[in-house]
Amino acid sequence: MITTTTTLALGLLYVYALLGSGGRVARADPEAKGSRFVCTAVPPGADISCPVESTSNRVQSASPHEDEFRSTIIQLRETVLQQKETIVSQQGTIKELNAKLSRCEAAAAQDARDSKARAGARRKEYGKNTMGDLPRDPTETIEQLGKTMQTLKDRLENLEQQQQRANVSGAAFPSELRDLLKRRLSDLESQLLRRVSELEDEKSQLYNETAAHRQRTENTLNSLLERITELERSNSAFKSPEDFKISLPLRTNYLYGRIKKSLPEMYAFTVCMWLKSSASPGIGTPFSYGVPGQANEIVLIEWGNNPIELLVNDKVAQLPLSVSDGRWHHICITWTTRDGFWEAYQDGERLGTGENLAPWHPIKPGGVIILGQEQDIVGGRFDATQAFVGELSHFNMWDRVLRPIDISGMANCSAYMPGNVVPWVDGNIEVFGGATKAALEICEDRLFDS
User: Fold this and answer.
1) Start-to-end CA span in the chain (Å)
2) Is the domain of 435 the same as that of 299?
3) Residue 347 lies in a domain
4) 301-345: pLDDT as tens digits
5) Is residue 299 exposed (0-12), middle (13-18) or buried (19+ Cβ within 10 Å)?
6) CA 188 → CA 3, 104, 148, distances in Å?
7) Residue 288 shares a structural domain with residue 419
8) Name one GO molecular function term (predicted).
9) Residues 215 and 290 in one domain
10) 366: which of 46, 102, 169, 416 lies 20 to 30 Å off by Cα?
């Protein structure tokens, strides 16, 4: 703009100079008829007898130049006005674009803070048994940022087109500002890509958490529905469907109980029961679970003078339990396929732990649970020397590892938790060979024993 103004000023000075040099010329009235007289200014004291050069040719030659200069001045003035308008328009566009970029950066920073706050809130709320609304899908935020980015790119293209038009007309657009805009757009695009990646990760995490929560809720509801159905169908003669025991008084191969339900595939389990036995040597087999191809999928046995053993996939771990004193004892066994880790509880107290018991082995589904006998084939071929002698009640099984506080609550009769895989319900237990069911209120009976 400075160069254009300087050029215009020089042109005006040049025209004024030319017009000033011809200031001495006086033209006659064009309406005059006949001879023409030309008056020439003579300095004081000059010799008026000197011949005076005729200025008619000068007047005639100066007229086309004057018109050309006037036309040039008008064109330069119009060019300056056009360039001034272009520069003002570009300055307004640049200010608006800078404001838009600042708002986008502030919005991106605010979104990052909000995302962290929501993640912290979800971690605090995680684990609550609620069916609240799902978090809002961040797709809307991604689309909004994408639209903003596209708008900024369009505005930059418009600026480049204006720059091309300005170059044609002679206006110069600052290259530093164009480079600054490109760098800021590049930085904003990088931030947008990072934000999109974070939102995708957050969306995936939310989906996984929601799916896991939904699965846990569905499992709980299914267990409750099965429990209600069993209670409705049960015609038990006992005070409550779970207040009974099974008595296996003889060491034979034909007294046993059978669970009607089978097990699903499991990667962990907890099995709890109340036992009362004074048999010697060894209490025998409180329960066994066999599947096709593996009769010893899960077995709890005390045989001869050996300690109580837990078998998983025919692999053995010895448990530090002692229950052959003729009193009621509450025992719980937990196991997980991860590293084959197991725990053994007696009367609410954890007495032992171990690992490497059939690690990474999943419990196979579709087998048979027998109470009081060890299976050599699925559902049969019992050995009388391995039979359980005594009484058994509240046999429950879960597909997860229970917390110590839950196990302690059941052992102390301060809580009752039916198994979500195998609950102790009258209608779910069959007895054979002379085994009997009898009413039992375990907490009162245990208090009487002690």
Assistant:
1) 106
2) yes
3) yes
4) 998 888 999 999 999 999 999 998 889 999 999 999 999 999 999
5) buried
6) 36, 8, 10
7) yes
8) metal ion binding
9) no
10) 416
Question: Does 194 share its domain with 256?
Answer: no
Give Cβ neighbours of residue 436 (< 8 Å, ≥ 6 apart): 246, 247
Confidence of residue 59 (pLDDT cuts 50, 70, 90): very low
In a domain? residue 401 = yes
> Do residues 344 and 351 make contact, with C-beta atoms less than 8 angstroms apart?
yes
99 part of a folded domain? no
Asked whether the beta carbons of 19 and 66 are under 8 A apart, the reply is yes
Residue-by-residue DSSP string for 185-252:
HHHHHHHHHHHHHHHHHHHHHHHHHHHHHHHHHHHHHHHHHHHHHHHHH----SSSTT-EEEEE-S--
| pLDDT, tens only, 366-375 | 999 999 999 9
The C-alpha atoms of residue 180 and residue 162 are separated, in whole angstroms, by 17
DSSP string, 89-107: HHHHHHHHHHHHHHHHHHH
0.85 surpassed by pTM: no
Does 220 share its domain with 332?
no
| Count of other CB atoms within 10 angstroms of residue 258 | 17
For 275, the enclosing helix (H) or strand (E) is strand 268-276
- Cα 183 to Cα 185: distance, rounded to the nearest angstrom: 5
**pLDDT recorded at residue 224:** 78
The label of the residue with tokens 């052959």 reads 324
Total residues belonging to the chain: 450
DSSP string, 4-53: HHHHHHHHHHHHHHHHHHTTTEEPPPTT--S----EE---TT--TTSPPP
